Structures are given as structure tokens and as C-alpha cells.
Amino acid sequence: MIYKLRNDREPIRIAYLGAFQTIWAKHTLNPFEKLKTFKEGKANIEESVAQSPSDMEIRFIRLSVQLNAPKFLGYSNNIEEDKKIIRHCGSEIKSETLQKMINECIKLKQ
């Protein structure tokens, strides 16, 4: 598989890999491979959250995926949790670009 990382289990990299896999699943033709790829991506995202639960970028990646995942996949159970954590700790985000993306995604600024 082209999207496997070699011996690199840094949480942020795992989160981005998982996001890529969930998006890649959309472009896979075989329905079984679609589901398998999505589940692998979901598992990678959840692993990264478990390893680094206070990382706002990882939380944002999961939130973005869950907001855009088809409902029938059932991957939307952390949306409110992630929004709450991001709102509470959002001031800790140093990247202006990330801050803008988060604000656009969950409408922190009204």
C-alpha cells in the first residue's frame, strides 16, 4: 500500500495518515476496499488521539473527518467533545493558519 509510513508512529503523522486514508477510501472502486481503507484511517486517527489527547491539531483532524464522513459509517461520536475541547483550549494554538481553519470549520468566531 502506498500510504503506509515506515516505523513512524508520531501521533500527528498518524493523524494525517488516518485523514488521508479516510479521504482515499472515497476514491476506491471496490466497496469492501473502501470500507477497509476508511476503517484503517479511523483507527489511525483514534490511535493518534489516544497517544496525544491534548493536541489541538489532532483533535481538529478528527473533527474534520467526522464532520465530513458519511453518516452511515457511524463515525461522528466525538464531534461535540472535540468542539468543546478546541473551544476551551483554542487559545493555545500557535499556528495562525490552523486557527483560521478551525474557526471556519466550527464557527468559533461569530
From TrEMBL:
<protein>
    <submittedName>
        <fullName>Uncharacterized protein</fullName>
    </submittedName>
</protein>
